[in-house]
Write a structure and sequence with these properties.
Bound molecules: adenosine-5'-triphosphate
Keywords: ATP-binding, Cell membrane, Membrane, Nucleotide-binding, Transport
Distance between the termini: 42 Å
Strand content: 15-25%
Strand order of the largest sheet: 5-6-7-3-8-9-11-10
Pfam family, one: oligo_HPY
Protein name: ABC transporter ATP-binding protein
Organism: Streptomyces akebiae
Family: Belongs to the ABC transporter superfamily.
Structural class: alpha/beta
Length: about 350
């Protein structure tokens, strides 16, 4: 673990349950100043719940235990919008339909700073301008429904960053947009984060996005950490079969992450790989109320052995800041994606 002074956000033993059924099962991680941490994993892994727990915004009916502290302070709700802010999947849910966008940004400014209405309004227009909204003065007077999807998401990024928080949490911030807009909006998010010096916790199932934007990666499966570490280490030499499976389902160019840094398309290794069908991981993740005993990934794992079916793996250290929860992590081949590729 890093020295406490280097940690901005600290999560320890986080558990989240509905009606006694745990969807997040003991998660611990840190976020350091200015770093981008990606939470990845298939649908249902518990990524969104974890993201919401960081903001003290769990859904109704959820019970939680463990600790989440921002600069040592556990009162997350009091820090929301000020030191930690959310960019949600669906921009409409973050914006009120009955107020002009500029007014909403100005209200966000005035909720934390004692400034005049005029000054707050000027900051709102400047924030809209910074995220690339054309004719920001006029657009500030428009309502969310008068914005396109991409513009709304930019406005939400402006809203999340306007008070220069320490941490921005973005939960699949571009899934509602088409591919070209996704790229643009991610660039805006990255630039704004950089500009205000915030750390970013990015929930995504898009591993291409992770490669482009993340410093560290936390891979989740069935509410648990499978692997966590510097992005270059986790992608360059994944130690958990599940991480390898996620990487194996990327298109070949992206899939080269788990190789030897060789992007030469004439290399026999890549040429061979292109001839093979790119698989996804067979089967699907278990529901929280139907977890198998032992390692939750065991029923889908190509390296499964008897012990995996009855004993949950504990985290092991695979390198500097690189943790993996797998009984057989030191037997995972390199490149690990071979575990999931069909023979040529
Ligand atoms: N409001 C809720 N009520 C009951 N169960 C819930 C609720 N929200 C989440 N869950 C349970 O928690 C699990 C994890 O949900 P979560 O939204 O965190 O997954 P995720 O990894 O973000 O997946 P996705 O990529 O589909 O959003 C769900 O599969 C579901 O079983």
């Amino acid at each position: 673990m890093p020295p406490a002074s280097d940690v901005l956000l600290s999560v320890r033993g986080l558990r989240i349950a509905f009606d006694g059924v745990e969807a997040v099962r003991g998660l611990s991680f840190d976020v350091r100043p200015r770093e981008v941490l990606a939470l990845v994993g298939e649908s249902g892994a518990g990524k969104s719940l974890t993201a919401r727990a960081l903001l003290g915004m769990l859904p109704e009916g959820a019970t939680s235990s463990g600790t989440v502290r921002l600069r040592g302070d556990a009162d997350l709700a009091a820090q929301r919008g000020r030191r930690i802010a959310l960019v949600p999947q669906d921009a409409l849910s973050a914006l009120s339909p009955v107020h002009p966008v500029g007014d909403q940004l100005a209200a966000a400014v005035r909720s934390v700073a004692r400034v005049s209405r005029k000054e707050a309004r000027a900051r709102a227009v400047a924030a809209l301008d910074r995220v690339g909204i054309p004719d920001a003065v006029r657009r500030a007077r428009a309502y969310p429904h008068e914005y396109s999807g991409g513009m709304r998401q930019r406005a939400v990024i402006a809203m999340a960053t306007i008070n220069e928080p320490d941490v921005v949490v973005a939960d699949e911030p571009t899934t509602a947009l088409d591919a070209e807009l996704q790229e643009q909006v991610l660039r805006v998010l990255a630039a704004q984060r950089e500009a205000v010096g915030a750390a970013l916790v990015l929930v995504t199932h898009d591993l291409g996005v992770v490669r482009e934007h993340a410093d560290r990666v936390l891979v989740m499966y069935a509410g648990r950490q499978v692997e966590q570490g510097p992005a270059a280490a986790v992608w360059g030499r994944p130690r958990a079969p599940y991480t390898a499976g996620l990487l194996a389902s990327l298109p070949p160019d992206d899939g080269d992450l788990d190789g030897h840094g060789d992007s030469d398309s004439d290399s026999p290794r890549l040429a061979g790989r292109r001839r093979r069908r790119l698989p996804s991981i067979p089967g699907s993740p278990p529901a929280p109320d139907a977890l198998p005993p032992g390692c939750a990934f065991a029923p889908r794992c190509p390296l499964v052995e008897d012990r995996c079916r009855h004993e949950e793996p504990r985290p092991s250290t695979a390198g500097d800041g690189h943790e993996v929860s797998c009984h057989r992590w030191d037997e995972v081949p390199h490149p690990a994606t071979e575990l999931f590729l069909e023979p040529a």
